[in-house]
Amino acid sequence: MARQLERGLPHCHNSQVVLEFQSNWLASGARLDVQELRAGYAEDVLKGVTFSVEPRMKVGVVGTTGCGKSSMLLALLRIIEPRGGRIVINGIDTRDIGLATLRTALGLVPQEPMLFTGTLRHNLDPFKAYTDGRIKKAVNCCHLESFVKSLPLGLDHQVSDEGGNLSFGQRQLLCLARMVLRQPALLLLDEATSAIDPATQESVQDTINHAFPTSTMLAVAHRLETIMEFLGHQVMMLL
Ligand SMILES: Nc1ncnc2c1ncn2[C@@H]1O[C@H](COP(=O)(O)OP(=O)(O)O)[C@@H](O)[C@H]1O
Ligand SMILES: [Mg+2]
């Protein structure tokens, strides 16, 4: 990687190489190649997983509970480190990428939606990177408009207890709205709609199908039906 970049930038210093790499490497979408990946905890859970995803492709991941779907997403984020094989994004091994750069490129809606103690606005936009207009659009897009309007303080509503005063489904939708704002190059959804009521499910699936046009997406579900609805019968991968 460094050699390739240096060819293009023959006289620059290392820091400039890093800068170039951070700003341009995902400009035309993220391609993901997982090769013979081994990872796990005391024992390996992923025992030689290989697949590739083209830039901007939406892929469903299905498999029985405990087969390692969440672990695979954690390995992509290097929350668990691969013990063997490679995870390559646009030709670059994720072990050669700084964690901050990697985790800026990737976005996760986790199986257990995580919120911070603070306002709704802070939860949606922790780095104060977006206008209120953009935040409201993301909220509407995730069917949280009436919920936010029902709160006396709206986006300034205080999330207490790391989200304990919100329902699980509301927390999932807020985590999704956070990603709608961020538009990560590689979006990872881990059973992201599991607790959303059936009436809202369909429209949330529509959001997922349309709100991330430039993201490469891996969507995990343990129900095949959910994946089919999510992705309109696109590519499927069984672990
Ligand atoms: N933090 C952990 N420590 C030890 N074992 C774990 C941990 N998390 C998950 N596992 C085990 O790894 C296996 C895969 O889990 P997981 O990736 O959560 O599966 P899935 O998401 O497909 O249901 C399971 O056997 C689970 O018990
Ligand atoms: Mg899981």
From TrEMBL:
Residues 19-239 form the ABC transporter domain. GO terms for molecular function: ATP binding; ATP hydrolysis activity; ATPase-coupled transmembrane transporter activity. One of its GO terms (cellular component) is vacuolar membrane. It comes from the Eukaryota. Its main location: membrane. Coiled coil: none annotated. It holds the Pfam family ABC_tran. Keywords: ATP-binding, Membrane, Nucleotide-binding, Repeat, Transmembrane, Transmembrane helix, Transport. InterPro entries: AAA+_ATPase, ABC_transporter-like_ATP-bd, ABC_transporter-like_CS, ABC_transporter_C-like, P-loop_NTPase. It is a multi-pass membrane protein. This is ATP-binding cassette sub-family C member 2 (Canalicular multidrug resistance protein) (Canalicular multispecific organic anion transporter 1) (Multidrug resistance-associated protein 2).
